[in-house]
C-alpha cells in the first residue's frame, strides 16, 4: 500500500503543486498545501484508493485548505515559526513567475476559474457547480481573466 | 494567453517536487497520534469525573454548614403529617463534613425507590418532572467503625399518576465522608413507598430506623455495617405511644 501511495504521490504532486502555486502565488505555500492534502489522503488511503480519480480528492482538499481562512492564519503562524517543510528544489522558470504574478492581480474567483480550467482540466460545469454559479458566469470569469492576463503579460513583456 | 498556461502545465516537475510520501505519511501519523492522545485525555477526564462523583462545580457548592443540632431526619413535609422526631444525643456537625446538604449535587446510592441517582438540591428540593425530591437533615454518627462520623440522610421522592402515583417513596441513604467533606454514597439501607418519613438515629455503630405510623404500631429496624454491606439485624414493632 505504501508503494502504491508513493507512486500516486509522485504522479500527482507536481501538477497539483503547479495549480496551487498559480492560485496562491507562493510556491512554498503551494507545496505545503499539497503536502497537507496528501497526508490527509494517506489517512484515508484505504478508501480513496478505490475512487475513480483519487487525485481529484486530494485536489479538492488542497483547494479547500487554500481558501480556508483558519488554515491561512495557521500557515502564517507556522511560517513565522519557521516550521514549514520546504524541500530543496530549483527555482521556477522566470516566465512562470511572471505568469503567476499576473494571475495574482486577478480577483480570486477569476483566478480560481482560470487555474482549475486550464491547469487542472476541470470542466466549466464542474467549476460552476463548486462555485455555485451559472455556467455562463464561469465562462465570463474565464474570458475576463484571460483578457486581464493578456494585458498584464503584454505590459511585462513590453518592459 | 492559453499557451502561457499550457507552458506552466508542461513545466518540468523538479521545481514543484514535494517533501515526499514518507513525510506525508509521518505527518498523518503525528496527527493520528495527537488525536488519539486527545481522546485518551478526554476519556480520562470523563472517568475521573465519574469516579469522583461530582462535576467540577461541586466544590463551589460545598458550603460550610452552620453548626446545627442533628436531632432527627425529619423535615417539614407539607404533603404528609409530621412524623415526630427521634431523641438522639446532642451533636454538632462533625469536622469531617462540610457540605450544605440542602444545596448540594449528589449521587444517591443505588435504590429501588427513587429513579434519579444524581440529584441537585436547591433549598432541600429538586425537580425532575414529574418527579419531586426533598432531602432531610442528615444524622451523623460512626457506623463503619473507623472512628470518623458517617452520615445517614432520608430522601423523599414522588411522581404522578404516570409514574406509579403521587405517593411518597423514602430512601434512607448512608454515606461516608470524602476528603473534601462531601458524601461518598455507600448504600441505600432502606427504600420503599411510605407515607411517613423514617426517623433515623445512630448509636453504637447501629443505625435505627423508626417508621412511626399514625394509625398503628411503629416499625423499628436496625442495621449494622459489616465492612462490605448493610445488614438488617432486627425488625420489631412497638405500640404507638399515647
From TrEMBL, chain A:
Residues 9-75 form the RNA polymerase sigma-70 region domain. This is SigE family RNA polymerase sigma factor. Keywords: DNA-binding, Sigma factor, Transcription, Transcription regulation. Pfam families: Sigma70_r2, Sigma70_r4_2. NCBIfam families: sigma70-ECF. PANTHER family: ECF RNA POLYMERASE SIGMA FACTOR SIGM, RNA POLYMERASE ECF-TYPE SIGMA FACTO. Belongs to the sigma-70 factor family. ECF subfamily. Residues 97-149 form the RNA polymerase sigma factor 70 region 4 type domain. It comes from the Bacteria. InterPro entries: RNA_pol_sigma-70-like (IPR039425), RNA_pol_sigma-70_dom (IPR014284), RNA_pol_sigma70_r2 (IPR007627), RNA_pol_sigma70_r4_t2 (IPR013249), RNA_pol_sigma_r2 (IPR013325), RNA_pol_sigma_r3/r4-like (IPR013324), WH-like_DNA-bd_sf (IPR036388).
TrEMBL record, chain B:
Residues 12-31, 60-93 are annotated as: Disordered. It comes from Cryptosporangium japonicum. Keywords: Membrane, Transmembrane, Transmembrane helix. The keyword Transmembrane helix applies. This is Uncharacterized protein. It comes from the Bacteria. The chain crosses the membrane at residues 37-55. The lineage of its organism: Bacteria, Bacillati, Actinomycetota, Actinomycetes, Cryptosporangiales.
Amino acid at each position: 500500500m505504501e508503494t502504491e501511495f508513493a507512486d500516486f504521490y509522485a504522479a500527482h504532486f507536481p501538477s497539483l503543486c503547479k495549480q496551487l502555486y498559480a492560485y496562491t502565488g507562493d510556491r512554498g505555500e503551494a507545496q505545503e498545501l499539497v503536502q497537507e492534502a496528501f497526508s490527509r489522503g494517506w489517512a484515508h488511503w484505504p478508501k480513496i484508493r478505490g475512487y475513480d480519480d483519487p487525485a481529484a480528492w486530494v485536489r479538492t482538499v488542497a483547494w479547500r485548505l487554500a481558501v480556508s481562512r483558519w488554515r491561512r492564519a495557521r500557515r502564517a503562524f507556522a511560517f513565522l515559526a519557521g516550521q514549514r517543510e520546504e524541500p530543496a528544489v530549483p527555482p521556477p522558470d522566470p516566465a512562470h513567475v511572471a505568469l503567476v504574478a499576473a494571475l495574482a492581480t486577478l480577483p480570486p474567483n477569476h483566478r480560481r476559474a482560470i487555474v482549475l480550467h486550464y491547469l487542472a482540466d476541470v470542466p466549466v460545469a464542474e467549476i460552476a457547480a463548486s462555485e455555485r454559479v451559472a455556467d455562463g458566469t464561469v465562462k465570463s470569469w474565464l474570458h475576463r481573466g484571460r483578457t486581464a492576463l493578456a494585458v498584464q503579460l503584454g505590459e511585462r513583456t513590453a518592459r | 494567453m492559453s499557451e502561457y498556461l499550457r507552458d506552466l502545465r508542461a513545466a518540468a516537475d523538479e521545481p514543484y517536487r514535494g517533501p515526499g510520501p514518507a513525510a506525508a505519511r509521518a505527518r498523518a501519523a503525528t496527527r493520528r497520534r495527537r488525536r488519539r492522545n486527545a481522546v485518551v485525555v478526554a476519556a480520562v477526564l470523563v472517568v475521573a469525573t465519574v469516579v469522583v462523583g461530582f462535576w467540577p462545580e461541586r466544590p463551589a457548592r460545598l458550603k460550610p454548614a452552620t453548626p446545627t443540632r442533628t436531632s432527627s431526619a425529619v423535615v417539614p413535609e407539607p404533603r404528609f403529617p409530621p412524623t415526630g422526631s427521634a431523641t438522639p444525643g446532642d451533636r454538632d456537625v462533625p469536622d469531617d463534613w462540610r457540605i450544605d446538604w440542602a444545596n448540594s449535587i449528589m449521587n444517591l446510592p443505588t435504590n429501588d425507590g427513587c429513579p434519579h441517582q444524581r440529584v441537585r438540591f436547591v433549598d432541600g428540593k429538586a425537580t425532575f418532572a414529574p418527579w419531586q425530591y426533598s432531602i432531610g437533615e442528615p444524622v451523623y454518627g460512626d457506623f463503619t467503625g473507623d472512628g470518623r462520623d458517617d452520615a445517614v440522610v432520608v430522601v423523599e421522592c414522588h411522581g404522578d399518576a404516570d409514574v406509579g402515583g403521587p405517593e411518597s417513596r423514602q430512601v434512607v441513604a448512608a454515606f461516608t465522608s470524602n476528603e473534601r467533606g462531601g458524601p461518598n454514597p455507600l448504600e441505600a439501607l432502606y427504600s420503599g413507598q411510605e407515607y411517613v418519613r423514617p426517623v433515623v438515629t445512630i448509636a453504637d455503630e447501629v443505625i435505627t430506623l423508626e417508621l412511626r405510623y399514625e394509625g398503628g404500631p411503629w416499625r423499628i429496624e436496625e442495621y449494622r455495617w459489616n465492612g462490605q454491606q448493610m445488614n438488617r439485624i432486627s425488625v420489631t414493632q412497638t405500640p404507638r405511644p399515647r
